[in-house]
Amino acid sequence: MRVDTDNKPLRVGVVGMGGIGNTHAKALKADPLALLCGVCDVVKEKADQAARDYGVKGYYRLSEMLRDLDLDVVDVTTGGYENGSWHFEPTMEALAAGKHVLCEKPLSSDIREAREMVRFAAEKQRYLGCNLNHYFTPTAERARQYMSDGAVGELIYILFKMGFQGGEATYAFNPSPRFNQPYAHLKAFLTHPFSVMRYFCGDITHVQAFCRTPGFRANKGDLLLSVNSVHVRFSNGAIGYLISHRGDAVWGLGGWWSCEVAGSRGTFCIENCIERLTFWPAPKPGEKYGLGESPKPEVLETGIREFGATFPRRIHAFLEDVSNGVPLEHLRASGRDALATLEVIQAAVESYEAGGQLVRPVPLPPLKGDPLRERI
After folding, report:
1. Would residue 146 count as lying in a domain?
2. SS3 for 353?
3. DSSP letter at 192?
4. Which domain holds residue 230?
5. Angle, CA of 120, 125 and 127, to the nearest 5°
6. What's the CA gap between 167 and 10, in Å, rounded?
7. Structural element, H or E, at residue 156
């Protein structure tokens, strides 16, 4: 994407200096589109250490950082219950101050808060992005190019496997109330696969879910519904399936992250998120293949084995969009996109609680556009 080189780097402050906050700060320090100006954490030791590490001023309250620094962007990387209960207040405070916001996922652990965050950002005419970093990869970009070129054709299905490697022998009970909650895995983690499924296949209109807690977890008093099986339908008629677990078994083919998208003209599969993409063209007239045979695939090996490489790529995309002044509705991995994943997760929770009943997610707020920002 084009960036106006006459623009000065965006002045950014990071709120929440845990592991993810430091990951973001390192990416911002290395990005030419950003100038990291301050860090903030209510835990004094974390703020002070981050200030020393990045050579910026540390703050213990966002209000103080907003008062002292002329920021363009506030990067919200706080955590909380189900990894998202501390996102709402700093995001709303930054938006109210007229700042653009990049928020970690999930947008919030409370669907009502997430809806309000998206509504308020639109009211304030500020960019609200979310760290949906799993499709800011060379593999996803090439896969979308196959789709744009017509090589995939009409979408038929998507299969998604995603989780952690593990099993009974390596399981350790986490008693923290921040995560020992029935829906913590769905809310904290499934934002990622659903965001990728939407990236390739569009809006999800129907959801059916089955979830469980394996016996070796339940015997320890673990409340987490760590195994999640979700069947979906998309607005274009394609169907999809997601299976995810939190270290309850060892993943087989495709590794910890695999996404297979099949169409009438070709099928692709991404393995381990950023590592490998394989594309199989559909048979052409006159070509015959026996069981177990297929046309010769095209394979993209990125040479990237570190999942952490997705963070600077996604953060850079947000900085690009803000620097370019793209229409608010064209922001990649927007708050609206993040809200869409939470509406699907909420529907999955409702489906599970109803014994697997089919549930339709709450529709997203409409895209209206802004005549003062649109360029035709």
Report:
1. yes
2. helix
3. H
4. 135-310
5. 85
6. 44
7. strand 155-164
Token pair 């979308």 is at which residue? 144
Scan for tokens 């005419």, then name that residue.
125
Write the Ramachandran bin of 208: left for phi over 0, alpha for psi from -120 to 50, otherwise beta. beta
**Which CATH number fits the domain that encloses residue 226?**
3.30.360.10
CA distance 351 to 343: 12
Averaged pLDDT, groups of 10, the chain, 376 residues long: 64 98 98 98 98 98 98 97 96 98 97 98 97 98 98 98 96 93 96 98 98 97 98 98 97 93 98 97 91 91 96 98 96 98 98 98 87 61
**Tokens linked to 325:** 């002044």
Asked if 362 contacts 341 with a C-beta cutoff of 8 angstroms, the reply is no
- Short-list 93, 96, 80, 88, CA closest to 116: 88
Radius of gyration of the chain (CA): 21
366: number of Cβ within 10 Å: 6
Counted domains in the chain: 1
The CA distance from 319 to 313, in Å, is 10
pTM for this entry = 0.94
66 three-state secondary structure: helix
